[in-house]
């Protein structure tokens, strides 16, 4: 009975674990294997070539351009999102008329899938009949319609702005969770001690929010770095690969150009990066758990 | 009704041993209280009796049957949980009748039993309510009612009163005791509250750090604690302990403290000259008198019924309880005496009673 | 003017740019979906339109094979949710109720797979489905969605399961219930809300997924909604935007309402409770 009791939980987690291991584990193995092979357009493995695929990737100027844009995309979107979300969370955490409505509106972009958001923006930004142009012309800000997505630099900027917009709800939610967990008595004590609102923000809110800011950074980096739909739907990395980031470039290599070896190599590089940030994330979560555990054990 | 025997029972979690070879005999109809500080293993032991924890070593016998590998449902026990564990999605009636329903008793019988138990516990008006609509004390009663309908061999109680406020706790204490006197079901009751243990138990088992320190009737333990732990744990305010050396001079036995104060002590045959001992006397056994040992009053706390005086006696702290209203001033010198027959001596090294 | 009113006006003023930008695409969606086709490309572009063309929706439904895509999306999302829950519920129960060897390693594994995005592995996943002969088969999506979602559902369920006191089940055992009976009579009734909320999120994830559906599904009869709508936009010279926006509204609005309603529960599935 005792040994059976020990087995029961393992039997309960096993089926799910097996599926996850298979569906997630096999592709990783396959990518590792494929990246060291010469591969035909149709996916046939033509033999071991060592690190040739990686060498090819590293000598590919489009890879470097995409990598460069990935860094810009990720850093700009994540940083801007954080900077915008913190004050929004502070406002939404305070009591004011219409707060419920404001919360619903701010969270709306999260409720719509990235693909649909991107489709709508693609139409809204249409150079001829897009309603963004209509709005700006009505307001007298521009005289002629602008072709927002026709030129790479401008298109990429617009995509970054949309990226920020869709990342705000999630980030704000994390911050709101953090703000609601701050101890009220610290604020009351600081008021008695004579702190201004700015003092409170600097010396109580910010330090106590640090774990939430950390987790928001890590999660956003993971999500944004991996995000394909916005750029893919709005410009497909074009014009002339001018808005490609690594995920879109990878997708094109794999499913448009049939460069499977190179695509596998890029996948692995990205996987490594993702793994790194995932480990940071896990470490943050575990640290948070250990802290709550010690509190709970105190009873 | 059945007796419960616990033989050399041990419990380990991984490499951590939390129960070290415990032996307890609970007789039929007896009300036994397991008491000890939190983390002493009393709840784990109770859960092992219930079958909610596996037994790492040793045996537990209920009635005639070794139950080590018997599922809780087949042990014929009833249990009252600390948080009551009422099923939130069932009415009070269904909560109390659940066990009978599982045993496929007839509707009429379930109704009769539940109503009977509800009658005893004053729960009749609440039978159709849900647990969240009841107060803490009422939930506590439902938890008891669930045990009552069962006619189980043994009742187990896991700190059942700890979530109630002080006043209700005293009432429920009396109710549980009255109930036991009426039903005479063998009961094992876990608490960390020594007053509950003293007032309710036929016999008390004092536990500490996974071991049994002493077993006995409440007053027996109070009057003859077997070691320092039991002496300090039972009684409030707790027994005064003063360290010193045993000595016989001029035919009188004394304990000489570090500061040289001589405390009159019983002349025990087993106490050796010069032995390092702990002198123990209960606060209520101290007598005010001019020819006592001199003490300096530090704090006086009147509780209404009595007065607790904290004083310094030869460099050691001592607490005395007086039932007369002596309102001393801090710094005042008083004489404290005692009947040496009521003094306890413990070996300092082993902590055991001499 | 009261202090709170003043504060409210200030806050709304500060939020207004963002509110406008957030509501803008919804406005675009609605005015496009309802306008007559001939008013799509007018110059200069304008918000105003002459009449509500409800028939746009009917036309779109017939011309774009919307019903089929809707059915495909429903099938994939429901099947993936069912499969995922079937595997997640026991695992979450084990996590919340038992100590077992490797438990912390398993939790780490869950956290890591939760962050694993299909896009990085998309080539490997495609090759896997080739090996399994499941390319162009909706079940390939069922399997992958279930697998990638499981970490989230297990985590979310176990965080709820842990709030159901263990002593309720213990009390049931002592009352005479078997393990199985205590699960059915005591645990599951109390876990229903948690399971419902988790299913809805799992469903929405499947409903919204784009990359895998784009990759695995080749024939337009098997498109799920996001791919179907995307296919009407991408690589076409003439895009019927009023149809696209009508389809977007139908595919988005119901799900968005449910999501907004349940959004506050989502955080539990993200292991953020631990940081809190």
Automatic annotation (TrEMBL), chain A:
Keyword Translocase included in the entry's annotation: no
Similarity comment: family membership: Belongs to the binding-protein-dependent transport system permease family.
Keyword Transmembrane helix: yes
Species assigned in the record: Sinisalibacter lacisalsi
PANTHER family per the UniProt record, alphabetical: ABC TRANSPORTER PERMEASE PROTEIN, INNER MEMBRANE ABC TRANSPORTER PERMEASE PROTEIN YCJO
InterPro entries per record: ABC_transporter_permease, MetI-like, MetI-like_sf
Membrane-topology descriptor: Multi-pass membrane protein
Organism domain of life: Bacteria
Family annotation (Pfam families): BPD_transp_1
Protein name from the UniProt record: ABC transporter permease
Subcellular localization, as worded in the UniProt entry: Cell membrane
Record key words, sorted: Cell membrane, Membrane, Transmembrane, Transmembrane helix, Transport
Domain ABC transmembrane type-1: 67-281
TrEMBL record, chain B:
SUPFAM superfamilies, sorted: MOP-like, P-loop containing nucleoside triphosphate hydrolases
Keywords on record: ATP-binding, Nucleotide-binding, Transport
Domain spans labelled ABC transporter: 4-234
Organism, scientific name: Sinisalibacter lacisalsi
GO molecular function list: ATP binding
Pfam families per record: ABC_tran, OB_MalK
Domain of life: Bacteria
Record-stated family: Belongs to the ABC transporter superfamily.
Name of the protein: ABC transporter ATP-binding protein
UniProtKB/TrEMBL annotation, chain C:
Membership in a protein family: Belongs to the binding-protein-dependent transport system permease family. MalFG subfamily.
Top-rank lineage group of the source organism: Bacteria
Record-annotated membrane-spanning stretches: 9-34, 74-96, 108-130, 142-161, 182-204, 241-262
Cell location: Cell membrane
Protein's name in the database: Maltose/maltodextrin transport system permease protein MalG
Role according to the record: Part of the ABC transporter complex MalEFGK involved in maltose/maltodextrin import. Probably responsible for the translocation of the substrate across the membrane.
Keywords: Cell membrane, Membrane, Sugar transport, Transmembrane, Transmembrane helix, Transport
Keyword Transmembrane helix: yes
A UniProt-annotated Pfam family: BPD_transp_1
Domain ABC transmembrane type-1 per the UniProt entry, residue ranges: 70-262
Membrane topology: Multi-pass membrane protein
């Amino acid at each position: 009975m005792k040994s059976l009791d020990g087995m029961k939980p393992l039997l309960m987690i096993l089926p799910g674990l097996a599926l996850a291991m298979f569906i997630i584990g096999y592709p990783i193995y396959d990518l590792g294997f494929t990246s060291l092979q010469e591969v035909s357009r149709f996916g046939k493995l033509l033999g071991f070539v060592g690190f040739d695929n990686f060498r090819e990737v590293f000598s590919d100027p489009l890879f470097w351009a995409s990598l460069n844009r990935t860094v810009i995309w990720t850093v700009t979107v994540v940083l801007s999102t954080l900077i915008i979300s913190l004050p929004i969370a502070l406002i939404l955490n305070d009591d004011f008329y219409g707060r419920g409505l404001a919360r619903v509106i701010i969270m709306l972009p999260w409720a719509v899938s990235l693909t649909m958001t991107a489709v709508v923006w693609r139409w809204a930004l249409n150079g001829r009949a897009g309603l963004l142009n209509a709005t700006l012309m009505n307001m007298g800000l521009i005289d002629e319609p602008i072709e927002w997505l026709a030129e790479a630099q401008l298109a990429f900027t617009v995509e970054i702005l949309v990226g920020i917009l869709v990342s705000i709800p999630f980030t704000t939610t994390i911050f709101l969770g953090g703000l609601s967990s701050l101890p009220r008595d610290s604020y009351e004590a600081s008021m008695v001690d004579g702190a201004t609102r700015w003092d409170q923000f600097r010396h109580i809110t910010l330090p106590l929010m640090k774990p939430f800011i950390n987790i928001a950074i890590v999660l956003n980096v993971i999500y944004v770095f991996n995000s394909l739909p916005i750029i893919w739907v709005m410009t497909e990395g074009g014009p002339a690969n001018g808005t490609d980031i690594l995920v879109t470039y990878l997708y094109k290599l794999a499913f448009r150009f049939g460069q499977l070896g190179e695509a596998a190599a890029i996948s692995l590089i990205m996987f490594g990066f993702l793994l790194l940030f995932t480990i940071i994330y896990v470490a943050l979560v575990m640290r948070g758990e250990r802290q709550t555990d010690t509190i709970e054990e105190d009873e | 009704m059945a007796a419960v025997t616990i033989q050399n029972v041990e419990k380990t979690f991984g490499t951590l041993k939390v129960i070290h070879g415990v032996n307890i005999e609970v007789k039929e109809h007896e009300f036994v209280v397991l008491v000890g500080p939190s983390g002493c293993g009393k709840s784990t032991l109770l859960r092992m009796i219930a079958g909610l924890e596996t037994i790492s070593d040793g045996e537990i016998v209920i009635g005639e049957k070794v139950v080590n590998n018997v599922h809780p449902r087949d042990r014929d026990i009833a249990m009252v949980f600390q948080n009551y564990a009422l099923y939130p999605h069932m009415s009070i009636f269904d909560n109390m009748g659940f066990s009978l329903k599982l045993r496929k008793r007839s509707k009429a019988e379930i109704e009769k039993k539940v109503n009977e138990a509800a009658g005893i516990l004053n729960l009749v008006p609440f039978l159709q309510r849900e647990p969240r609509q009841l107060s803490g004390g009422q939930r506590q009663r439902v938890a008891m009612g669930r045990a009552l309908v069962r006619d189980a061999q043994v009742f187990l109680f896991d700190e059942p009163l700890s979530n109630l406020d002080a006043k209700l706790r005293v009432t429920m204490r009396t109710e549980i005791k009255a109930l036991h006197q009426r039903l005479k079901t063998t009961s094992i009751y876990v608490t960390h509250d020594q007053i509950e243990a003293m007032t309710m138990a036929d016999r008390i088992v004092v536990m500490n750090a996974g071991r049994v320190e002493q077993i006995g009737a409440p007053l027996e333990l109070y009057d003859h604690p077997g070691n320092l732990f039991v002496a300090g744990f039972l009684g409030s305010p707790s027994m005064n302990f003063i360290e010193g050396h045993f000595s016989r001079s001029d035919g009188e036995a004394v304990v000489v403290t570090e500061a040289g104060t001589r405390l009159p002590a019983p002349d025990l045959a087993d106490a050796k000259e010069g032995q390092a001992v702990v002198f123990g006397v209960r606060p209520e056994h101290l007598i005010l008198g001019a020819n006592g040992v001199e003490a300096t009053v530090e704090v006086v706390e009147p509780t209404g019924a009595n007065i607790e005086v904290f004083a310094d006696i030869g460099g050691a702290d001592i607490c005395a309880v007086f039932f007369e209203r002596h309102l001393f001033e801090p710094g005042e010198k008083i004489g404290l005496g005692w009947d040496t027959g009521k003094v306890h001596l413990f070996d300092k090294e082993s902590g055991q009673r001499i | 003017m009261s202090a709170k009113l003043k504060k409210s006006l200030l806050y709304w003023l500060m939020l207004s740019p963002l509110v406008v930008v957030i509501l803008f695409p919804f406005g675009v969606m609605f005015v496009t979906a309802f306008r007559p086709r001939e008013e799509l490309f007018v110059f200069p572009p304008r918000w105003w339109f002459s009449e509500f063309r409800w028939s746009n929706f009917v036309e779109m439904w017939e011309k774009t094979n919307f019903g089929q895509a809707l059915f495909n999306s429903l099938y994939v999302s429901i099947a993936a949710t069912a499969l995922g829950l079937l595997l997640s519920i026991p695992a979450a129960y084990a996590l919340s109720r038992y100590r077992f060897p490797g438990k912390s390693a398993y939790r780490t594994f869950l956290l890591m797979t939760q962050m694993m995005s299909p896009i990085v592995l998309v080539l490997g996943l495609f090759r896997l489905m080739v090996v399994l002969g499941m390319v162009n088969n909706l079940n390939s999506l069922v399997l992958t969605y279930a697998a990638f979602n499981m970490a989230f559902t297990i985590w979310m369920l176990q965080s709820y399961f842990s709030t159901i006191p263990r002593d309720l089940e213990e009390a049931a055992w002592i009352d005479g219930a078997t393990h199985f009976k205590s699960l059915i009579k005591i645990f599951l009734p109390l876990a229903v809300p948690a399971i419902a909320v988790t299913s809805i999120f799992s469903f929405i994830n499947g409903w919204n997924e784009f990359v895998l559906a784009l990759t695995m599904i080749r024939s337009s009869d098997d498109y799920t909604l996001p791919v179907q709508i995307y296919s009407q936009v991408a690589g076409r010279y003439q895009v019927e935007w009023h149809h696209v926006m009508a389809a977007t509204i139908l595919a988005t609005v119901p799900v968005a309402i449910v999501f907004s309603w349940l959004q506050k529960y989502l955080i539990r599935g993200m292991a953020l409770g631990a940081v809190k």
